[in-house]
Amino acid sequence: MGFRADRCAGMSGRRPPQTTEDLIAPLRTRRWLSEARRKSLHLASLILPLWILYQPLPWPHSKRAWVALILSLTAIALTIDVIRVNDDRTRRGFKRFFGEMIREHEAFSLLGSTYLLIAAWLALELFPRPLAAAALGFTILGDGFAALVGKAWGRRRFFHKTLEGAAGGLIACLLWAVFLVSAGHLTWPVALAGALVASLVELLPIPLDDNLGMTLISGYVMRQLWMGQ
Length: 229
Prior knowledge:
Elements: H1 2-11, H2 20-24, H3 30-44, H4 47-54, H5 63-86, H6 88-98, H7 112-126, H8 129-153, E1 157-158, E2 161-162, H9 163-182, H10 188-203, H11 210-228
Antiparallel strand pairs: 1-2
Helix pairs in contact: 3-8, 4-8, 5-6, 5-7, 7-8, 7-11, 8-9, 8-10, 8-11, 9-10, 10-11
């Protein structure tokens, strides 16, 4: 009887319930650890929107000063990228130093960090400072956690992304929205709209780098709601 019950359970197609070890196992793979090293730098850039919000240093404070700083950093990043893309020795040096942290498509194009600086510069030019910081936070956290969750547990494909990864990015964006509202930087409608729009842009196959698309589109939507309050 026991054998028959086990056989029937196996034939039913039901998978045994996952244990904690099963859930943690993907986090030990080389593929996920490589993505985690890459995204650790991306997530560390959260210091930028926090710096914009709280301005702990004597400089920069004005919008002009912020734009000057970010534009200078962007110019430096662009210069390095142009040299890297066009000089074989520099490109090989980057590859040896950063290894798998540089994606294949970045070998002959701008790095994600450069796109993020461009997004920060444009956001500061186009939006009020709290909205620029909010949009950058949605981009950094949403894109970062979408990639980490998708690499670990992504199963259901949607275009070139996974729904599990999108859910992870959405949760990260919602937590950032809660922080922004709790700290008094934004209202609930503005913050939630930014979180939802940024998550949607990350999921959809929009022909624009996520750092640019998520920041600019979510910032634009938030600005429309901000101005209507």
